[in-house]
Amino acid sequence: MMGASGLVMQAMKTQIIAALAATFAFLAPVAAIADNHADEHGEDAPRWSIAIHGGAGTLSPDNMTPERRAEYEAALQVALDAGAQVLKNGGTAMEAVQAAILPMEDSELFNAGRGAVFTWEGENELDASIMDGRDRSAGAVTGVTTVRNPILLADKVRTESPHVFLMGEGAEQFAVEQGFDVTPPEYFYTQRRMDSLERMKAEALSSLDVDHKFGTVGAVALDSQGNLAAGTSTGGMTGKRWGRIGDAPVIGAGTYADNRSCAVSATGWGEYFIRVGVAQEICTRLRMTLYREAYASGGDLNDQHRAWMREQGVVQKAADAVMAEVKELGGDGGVILVTPDGDALFSFNTTGMYRGRATSDGVNEVAIFGGEEGSGTGNTPDH
Question: Of 217, 264, 299, 358, which is least packed with CB atoms within 10 Å of its CB?
């Protein structure tokens, strides 16, 4: 029987997802997200946009069965639909980001929440972060082992504490005080992830050799009020030791949102994303480019300057350039981003990235490998 804290958590999740479980089947049709860009009076309705990812890495179509591919595509579609439905109904970007990440945290397919990889000691240590582009408020947690949905805890850190970043036992104590259930370790146990750890130890392999991909999950969104948000959740790298922390919970590296520029969520080899400061670096480049364009024209920022950026592909070029810098240092992975204009883009320097995007203009697509429809990889090298 669910205890009082369990009822609190269920209410929290119900509030975020609304009634999504009753509104779409496991594989919601693409037509479910209709174009709502014009209202009944024929005027332009507010725009919204969302992008999600479920990890990037060394992926090959030859090594993925049709059944496995369909399973991943279905899981991505459920997550994408969950976030898009929130936005379509007038919800906030922050609500949409959480709604999209929750199903991926609850799935064994992704390296987050239930499907998290094991540390060297055989534990599941979870990281997550979230950021609101309106005021750049942020919350993050790292090394938690008893929280089913770390993205929800990260948001509680943002809204219910004076801090940005909590770790380990302290974060778990805060979770209990906020009404989170203590989730037992067996909930996170999956044989596939344990097999990866055992193979890594037996064959003296690196985490990259056993994983071949980074299963971190994330979402970025623009809501109808013009606000941006980003969130990221992960189990880290197989066999991680000594309390290793990657980029996912680090604001500015794996997650960043700023209404003045963009919202970004990253997935990849965290050490390199931290060194480059990937998420904030992309947003800062876009903001500085926009300001320089306005300054050069002798006027204030306006729609004309943003239109110029879109026409020149400035957003894609900035994301690709930062990902190229990650590769030059020796790292790999990818990013998703959404702009104040509603553009939902991807950039990755690996052979694939589990991803999807939906917009008020009627776009609704999921993809896995590089070069597929909607890949949005621009000028990123090796695509």
Answer: 299
The C-alpha atoms of residue 7 and residue 181 are separated, in whole angstroms, by 9
- Mention every residue, 6+ apart, whose C-beta is less than 8 A from residue 170: none
| pLDDT (tens digit per residue) in 166-202 | 999 999 999 999 999 999 999 999 998 988 888 888 8
Residues 6+ apart with CB under 8 A from 184: 146
pLDDT tens digits along 235-250: 998 889 899 999 999 9
pTM of the model: 0.84
Domain locations along the chain: 45-369
d(CA 232, CA 53): 9
The answer for residues whose C-beta is within 8 angstroms of residue 207's C-beta and 6 or more apart is 117, 200, 237, 238, 239, 240
Instruction: DSSP letter for 61, please.
Output: G
Whole-number pLDDT of residue 379: 36
The one catalytic residue among 119, 142, 145, 216: 216
| Cα distance from N-terminal residue to C-terminal residue, the chain | 51
Whether 238 is a known active-site residue: answer no
More confident site: 28 or 280: 280
Superfamily classification of domain 45-369: (Glycosyl)asparaginase (3.60.20.30)
Alpha-carbon gap, residue 265 to 282, rounded angstroms: 11
